[in-house]
Amino acid sequence: MSAIVKVTNLTKTYGGTAAVQGVSFELEENKIYGLLGRNGAGKTTIMHMLTAQQFASSGDIAVFGEAPFENESVLSRLCFIKESQKYPPMFTVKDVLEVSAMLHPNWDAAYAADLAGAFGLPMKRKVQKLSRGMLSAVGVVVGLASRAPLTIFDEPYLGLDAVARSIFYDRLLEDYAEHPRTVILSTHLIDEVSRLLEHVLLIDQGKLLLDQDVERLSGMAYSVVGSAAKLDAFVAGKKVLARETMGAIASATVMGEAGAQVRREAAERGLEFAPVSLQQLIVHLTGGKLGEKEAISS
Amino acid sequence: MSFLIDDSRPIFVQIAERIENDIIEGALPEESQVPSTNQFAAFYQINPATAAKGVNLLTEQGILYKKRGIGMFVAAGAKASLVEKRKEQFFEQYVVTMMREAEKIGITQDQLADMVRKGGSKS
């Protein structure tokens, strides 16, 4: 596996505020990545810098081994679907697809038409007249049909209903299987996409909090539920991310692997185990105090 | 999303278990071909790498084997070895949990034995 994106110590400051601070990561070829984090965490700024739409204040970016700025050989292999893509006012859906075909060397026009049909897009309608969901669907069609070696979707499903989102997931997996490429999905709909992802980058307050395979993440934390006194004895000395009490019952989310010994120990105290979903884990990680978080990423 | 997969355990483990169940129940006979990882991925709406990890888990245990250029197949003797493994897990998974719950709500061991017999005659 070779890295197609290499970001080193990337920083972006606006005036005195740092939107992105010292972020470093690598993206390997042909994986589906999740770029996750709360609103304003710095996800979009990172994507803008990766795609040469914003300058970095400092740090290095290499995409396909080269700096992306004004670099045709890099940019022709990129497809970035923005959250609120603006199109020229007179453009119809058909126009958008035709222009996209010129921008993306791997464009598959038949596939684009097929996708537009699946989402029920009216080809002759002006993009301006489309609903929010339809506009998102246009972005999804362009992103998939571009078959760009690096395809980036920033919140691709704004306004898409559950059926349309499911079509997107199905089509993405299907086409990814036939035409492997690197995909970045930036979203806060974590539960829905977590199964599609292979690897997660979690951004919080401009910093990279996690850079981990999804399968490893699902084993990073667990919750235990039981009587408060027994629970407190069990969690003593463990790293507790969150604790809730309801009458005599308490639950705690604990950082660490739920190995056989931990499970036995909990069972002996009459505590029940529950899994922690990726979304819950991320809520706990990005909702706490900053001081605790830095220990986790190290 | 796929209704067959839940969040209780890692997804690749659940994929491996579903293949195991299919082998035990005879839906996937020995020497038959297993769906490809891309087919699993599409069916369960999961990442193909996750599906591959589940399949690999069974390959490492000798339950599945690879025919180069064709795909994954169920090994001879896979069913018997899976049944053996499940029997070992049965006590921990069902009997111990049942005893614990029975104790909690005050069912005696004799009453429990009666229930098991009654349940057995029903099926």
Q: pLDDT under 50 segments of chain A (min length 5)?
A: 289-298
Query: How do the strands of the widest beta sheet of chain B line up side by side?
Result: 1-2
The DSSP helix count of chain A reads 12
- String of helices and strands of chain A: EEEHEHEHHHEHEHEEHEHEEHEHH
Give the % helix of chain B. Answer: 55-70%
Shape of chain B: elongated
Helix content of chain A: 25-40%
Strand content of chain B: 5-15%
Tell me the structural class of chain B: mainly alpha
Description:
The complex is a heterodimer of chains A (298) and B (123). Chain A is an alpha/beta fold and 298 residues long. In chain A, 36% of the residues lie in helices and 30% in strands. Chain A has twelve helices and 13 strands. Chain A has helices spanning 43-50, 72-75, 93-103, 109-118, 132-146, 162-178, 190-193, 214-217, 228-235, 260-268, 278-287, 290-297, and strands at 3-14, 17-28, 32-36, 58-63, 78-81, 150-154, 182-187, 199-204, 207-213, 221-227, 239-246, 249-255, 272-275. In chain A, the strands form three sheets. Chain A has a six-stranded mixed β-sheet, sandwiched between helices. In chain A, strands 11-12-10-13 form a four-stranded antiparallel β-sheet, with helices on both faces. In chain A, β6 (150-154), α6 and β7 form a beta-alpha-beta unit. In chain A, α3 runs parallel beside α5 (132-146) and α4 (109-118) runs antiparallel to α5 (132-146). Chain A starts with a strand and ends with a helix. Residues 289-298 of chain A have low confidence and may be disordered. Chain B is mostly helical and 123 residues long. Chain B is 62% helix and 7% strand. In chain B, β1 and β2 (71-74) form a beta hairpin. The longest helix of chain B is centred in the last third of the chain and has 27 residues, at 78-104. The relative contact order of chain B is 0.12.
